[in-house]
Amino acid sequence: MTKQVIGIPLGDPAGIGPEIVIKALKEKSIYEACKPLVIGSLEVLKQMEDILGTGCTFNVVSEPSDGLYKQGTIDLVDLGNVDTKALRPGEVQAEAGRAAYEYIACVTKLAMSGKVAAIATTPINKEAIKAAGIEQAGHTEILAELTGTYDPLTMFQVRGLRVFFLSRHVPLRRACDMVTRERLIEYIERCSQAMRRLGMHDSTLAVAGLNPHNGEHGLFGDEEGSEMEPAICEAAAKGISVVGPVPADSVFHQALHGKYGAVLSLYHDQGHIATKTLDFERTISLTIGMPFLRTSVDHGTAFDIAGKGIAGAIGMQEAIRLAALYAPGYGTGGS
Hints:
335 residues; Isopropylmalate Dehydrogenase; twelve-stranded mixed sheet
């Protein structure tokens, strides 16, 4: 199979993005899986290479087709948008936020034109993005705006466990109120479509329970019976391979070992705890529903260690590998 070009925006240049990119691209396995192309600033990368001393060189290109894509050489679209003399590692800076946004905009343009097959993003800082005057503070919101996508879907993957989310950044009390028949049907359908886009045509989606032991027939809560079971039955009647509710204290373990293709978590921490306890560094976020696939490390800019050369790059490696794994068939199995 032809190796795909995976676009890697550098993230906030004052964070650990430049470091984890250089460290990730030291690995031979990355070049065996894909053609990694960095979108960033040559001077920022050179400054970080001076700290790390990996011995890598940089190949500045105008087009992805110009890349060498060989271990030891980092192919780069250089936007030249950072004054490294003024850059302060580990601090919120509007200039760094603006640069990070421009990297995302550039890689999005390349992906929309088909010049890169998928993107693997590095951390940005929401405060820096806001300081730069950009309305959409997070990666998902920025990408949704740039691609004209309504409400992209998030999936976490770690090892063999895949987890979708019915709700994410809302208070837990509100998240419980969002467990409704209507919302569940919508998300079951969307998750099923997303699984097809990732090539998971014969996989079953399991819906996690909300209450202890699925509520014990109303003893500990009635959402399973009043909202969840009717929604799952209706979705199944439409031909969707879905089961549940499955008690949350067992469903993630069962999915990890192959019983289910993915789990629909009902709120933020339910799914985050399951994935990150399993393997914090290798938990990768996938954004599905846009014209191209985006994977991402699931950690921040780590300003406390930025510029020190001690950041781990396992998550970055995994994000690139997953982008390469899913990119060839993305979008061919459903909308």
